[in-house]
Structures are given as structure tokens and as C-alpha cells.
Amino acid sequence: MDRIALPPAILIVDDDSDILALLNLFMHRLAPTHDIMTMRDAQSALRHLAHRAVPLVITDYMMPGMNGLQLTAAVKAISPMTHVILATAYGSAALEQRAREQQVDTFLHKVDLFDRLEGVVRNVLHLPSAQE
After folding, report:
1. Which of 25, 81, 86, 126 is deepest in the core (most CB within 10 A)?
2. Which residue has the higher pLDDT, 132 or 18?
3. What is the reported pLDDT for 36?
4. CATH assignment of 9-125, given 3.30.300.30, 1.20.1440.230, 3.40.50.2300, 3.90.1640.10?
């Protein structure tokens, strides 16, 4: 049986449906050749990640059940090369330090998330800049 090649995927995890919808739309416009998958909780994300390679995970920090740092640790255990962007409205120097210790690749504050996210994603996924 032939294997079907799947396009690269981006996994977005956030329990806030409005943020999830905005990030989904933003990422579809930024990376139209990628599958954009959205999950409302970390457990669903991990189940999906166990079956499909995902080069990029964008996750919220504050979520019920498992927070973004715990999700990052689990993602890195499954797929060490997956780039994890942690976004939070509750940023602090202490949280940022903990994020680095948990191997979060990029830490972003939600207040300027969309201003910084495009550059980070283009760099991680090697997408051409908007001017190209």
C-alpha cells in the first residue's frame, strides 16, 4: 500500500475559542501550504502529535488540565525537533525563565502576539518574507 504524503502541519493549542479562531485564520494566511490544526486542550494535542509529525506547536500557557509548560515538556519528549511557541497573557520574568528551562523555543506575550508571531513563524518554517 502506498503512503500518502501529508503537507507539513502546525498545531495550535488554546482553550479560548476566540484566540484559537484568530490564530487559525492568521496561520492559514501566513502558511497556506501547511495543515493548520487547532486543539482546545493539551491532551488532544498530544494524541494528535503521537500520530503525525508537526514542526511547529503554538500553545497558550494557562489551560485547564495541563498548562503550556507541561505541554511543551510532553511535546519535546515525543518530538525534540518540534519548535514550540508559548503565548501568554500572564507573562513575567519568572515564567519566562521557567519556559526556557522547559525548552520553550519562543516565548511571546499575547499583548503583542500578532506583531511578533509572523516573523517567528517565517523563520522557524523557512517561509519567504512578505516582501519576497
Report:
1. 86
2. 18
3. 97
4. 3.40.50.2300
Domain boundaries, the chain: 9-125
Run of H or E residues at 122: helix 113-125
E strand segments, the chain: 9-13, 35-39, 56-60, 83-88, 106-109
- Compute the mean pLDDT over every residue in the chain, rounded to the nearest whole number: 92
122-130 long-range contacts, CB within 8 A, separation 24+? 122/30, 124/55, 124/56, 124/83, 124/85, 125/8, 125/10, 125/31, 125/34, 125/55, 125/56, 127/30, 127/31
Which three cell numbers mark 23?
A: 490564530
